[in-house]
Every structure is written in C-alpha cells, then in structure tokens.
C-alpha cells in the first residue's frame, strides 16, 4: 500500500503510517478537473457537450509525470510499508551515526514511503494548445511517411497510441480517437482503415493531444527534497542540530554524512545529487521550521 505525504502549502511532512485515501487515479482525475480553466467542473456524466463551443482559449491541466527531468532514476516500487533499508544497512547507519535502532527504522520507513509506488505526484502544467499542436504535427508526419512506405505503419501506430482525447470538445471528437486507437491496437486491421481513422482525427482539431509538460525545464521531482527532509527530521529527533561546515570548498559534517550514506544506499554511483543541491534542501528546511516551528509538533 502506498503511503501518502501530507503536503500543504510549503510543508512536507513524512507520514510513517499507511494513509487510506482515494485511489491515485481518482485523486489525479479530480485534480485535473479542478485545475482546468476556463471549463467549469462537470455536473453529470455528460461532461462533454455534444455541441462544440466557441473557440476555446488555451487551457491548462496539471498532470503527474515521471522521467521527464534529468535527475536520478529513483527506485520507485511498492515497499509494502516495510521501509527501504536492509537489516545490514540499518545497522551500518546506527553504528556510524550513533542513532537508535528505532530512529533508523523510522528513517527507513520515511524513505520507503517517499519512493513507494504512487506515493507522490509530480504535477506539471500541460498546455492544451501545445499538446494539440504536438499531436497534429506528429500525426501529419506519421501519415505522410506511412503513405510513402507501408513499413512505417508501426510509427503511425505509436503516434496514435500516444495521443489522448483529454481536450476533445465533443463526444464525437473523442470517439474518433477511440476508433483510431482500436484499429492501431489490432495488427490485423487494414492499413487503409488505419489511415482513414488517422485522417479523421486530423480533420477534427482538438480531438487528439500528446500530453507532456508545457515547459520541461521546469519539471521538478520532489523526491530528493523529501529524502533530505526525512533525514533532517530523524536528525532532529536524535537531538542533533541541522548544521554543516565547509572544508576545501566541500560541505562536511555528520548531517551531510548521513544524507550521503542514505543516497549511497538508494542510488547508484554517478546518479547521486550534488552537495550544493543537498545544501539547498537543508537550508530550505531550516528556513521553513524557523517560520513554522509547529510542523515539528506531534509528528
């Protein structure tokens, strides 16, 4: 079972116990509906009007994306609420940093919760105009190439299946892409039928969109910050201070050594965050608890 994090405004608090909540897909769907503008929330199952409205201004939705940034490939999986560290790793942390087995166990649970399947949502803005345009360009290119060389059918199939009807303005427009998906998934379908279906999608603007972050430079994976903050929480529980020192241009100190050890257990060499990134995470957490000391209460 995934353990969710309590995240309100800028506060990020790791929860050591399983939290029963709506399924991730339901939460994401609700969040998407709320975030869409200017379209109002649907009032019934017939959310899509049968009549296309006037030309829509650019709409934005916020969707979860993984793998778009160039950061570490975190070992995201279902940890079953059992924590992430092995017994040997927990003993090494306890021995190296003089922490009680209970605190180390809590840290293991916090890190495991951070990396648990669907425990976090990396929400990024998706622009309707950009997503629809990307689908239009990709489909036109794939259709053209497939007509020139039938061996490129696979690429057309890939492009069609990458398209989503999220921004379709009518049920009829949504149905066009659904039909194209059905043909694309069937390797026995006639190529002429597949091309006709793709042409029909193209002829209905907005019926297909390739969903992706509006600005990939702003894609942010919050897992590193959660992991650093989890280390800070446990460090404070151990009666230590959130301090570090500089030695020959490099950050040093017991807190940094704890975080380095955790990152070594979690990520392969060459994929670990920089000292400066960790330092910024620690500084942000120190500033946060200075402004909002109550977040440390009753954790």
SS class: mainly alpha
Largest sheet, spatial ordering of strands = 1-2
Instruction: Give the C-alpha Rg.
Output: 24 Å
Number of discrete helical segments: 10
Dominant shape? elongated
Look at the structure and give the mean pLDDT: 80
Q: For the terminal residues, how far apart are their CA atoms?
A: 21 Å
- The percentage helix is 40-55%
Beta-strand segment tally: 6
Low-confidence stretches: 1-56
SSE string, helices as H and strands as E: EEHEHHEHHHHHEEHH
Largest sheet: 2 strands, antiparallel
Strand content: 5-15%
Q: What this model shows, in words?
A:
The protein has 299 residues and is mainly alpha-helical. 47% of the residues lie in helices and 7% in strands. The strands form three sheets. It has a two-stranded antiparallel sheet with strand order 1-2. It has a two-stranded antiparallel sheet with strand order 3-4. A hairpin with a 2-residue loop joins strand 5 and strand 6. The two termini are 21 Å apart.
Summarize, please.
This protein is mainly alpha-helical. It is built from 10 helices and 6 strands; from the N terminus they run ββαβααβαααααββαα.
Produce the secondary structure layout.
Elements: E1 6-8, E2 11-13, H1 24-35, E3 60-64, H2 87-97, H3 101-114, E4 123-127, H4 128-148, H5 153-162, H6 171-185, H7 191-202, H8 223-237, E5 245-247, E6 250-252, H9 254-266, H10 275-291
Antiparallel strand pairs: 1-2, 3-4, 5-6
Helix pairs in contact: 2-3, 3-8, 4-5, 4-7, 5-6, 6-7, 8-9, 8-10
């Amino acid at each position: 079972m995934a353990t969710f994090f309590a995240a309100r405004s800028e506060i990020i608090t790791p929860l050591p116990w399983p939290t029963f909540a709506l399924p991730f897909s339901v939460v994401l769907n609700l969040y998407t509906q709320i975030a869409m503008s200017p379209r109002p929330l649907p009032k019934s199952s017939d959310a899509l009007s049968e009549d296309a409205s006037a030309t829509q201004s650019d709409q934005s939705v916020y969707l979860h994306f993984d793998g778009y940034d160039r950061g570490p490939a975190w070992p995201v999986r279902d940890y079953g609420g059992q924590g992430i560290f092995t017994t040997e790793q927990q003993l090494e942390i306890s021995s190296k940093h003089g922490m009680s087995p209970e605190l180390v166990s809590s840290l293991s649970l916090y890190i495991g919760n951070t990396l648990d399947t669907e425990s976090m949502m990396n929400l990024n803005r998706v622009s309707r105009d950009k997503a629809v345009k990307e689908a239009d360009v990709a489909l036109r290119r794939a259709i053209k190439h497939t007509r020139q060389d039938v061996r490129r059918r696979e690429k057309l199939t890939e492009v069609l299946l990458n398209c989503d009807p999220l921004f379709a303005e009518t049920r009829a427009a949504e149905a066009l892409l659904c039909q194209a998906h059905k043909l694309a998934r069937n390797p026995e379908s006639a190529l002429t039928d597949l091309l006709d279906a793709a042409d029909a999608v193209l002829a209905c603007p907005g019926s297909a969109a390739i969903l992706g972050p509006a600005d990939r430079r702003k894609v942010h994976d919050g897992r590193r910050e959660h992991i650093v903050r989890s280390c800070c929480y446990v460090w404070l529980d151990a009666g230590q201070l959130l301090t570090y020192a500089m030695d020959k241009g490099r950050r040093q100190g017991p807190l940094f050594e704890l975080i380095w050890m955790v990152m070594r257990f979690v990520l392969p060499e060459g994929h670990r965050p920089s000292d400066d990134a960790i330092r910024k995470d620690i500084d942000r957490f120190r500033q946060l608890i200075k402004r909002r000391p109550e977040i440390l209460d009753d954790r």
